[in-house]
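[User] I wish I could look at a protein chain and see how it folds. I have put the entry right below:
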Amino acid sequence: MRIVIPVYDGVDLLDVCGPSELFNWAKFGVELVTRKPGPVRFANGFEINAMQGLTSVTSCDALWVPGGEPAALSALMYGADQSYIQFLVAQAAVSQYVCSVCEGALLLAQARLLDGYAATTHWAFIPYLLEKFPAISIADGHPRYVLDRNRLTGGGVSSGLDESLRLIELLGGTPLAQSVQQNAQYYPVPPVSSEIPNVIQSPMPAVQGETLAA
């Protein structure tokens, strides 16, 4: 199995590394691609090398789009360089599953890849999706992930672990997903409990003249 993860400066660490670890346990191949091959800086300052560019689009089992800092998302969505969004459109066309975790849903939305689908994202960015992308059906209740046909979207960063297990199950079967769960000892029992807050305004920055992708 082959999973393609397009990364960028300001990307969330857990959105990439957590699922990649579980994919590795499943013996899936993971390919990191980026606009300019070389070091990519995560939102927390860590760096990783992504040695492949966005120029090569080949069939894969899943396209996995991670979230990131609002300013980084805004630049990818509305900046003059649209190569990242264009890559998503091209790669999605030859991917068995199209996935996002956390704010990665905004990138898929800008590429018009979630129009007509049910989806979720980090709770703080749901108002932005509702306002800017009305063709997307936002799932009620802040689920950890939502599967609608071949679109798989996840909530906030930690949701990527649940979501990646679901993708492993879809691609490799339940026994494989159970084996990965056991090897990773993924049986979460948080030491605290809280409620997801109600959000009126998203953290996404206002962008002068922003438009939806054509």
Notes: Helices lie at 13-25, 70-78, 83-92, 104-110, 126-132, 159-172, 174-184.
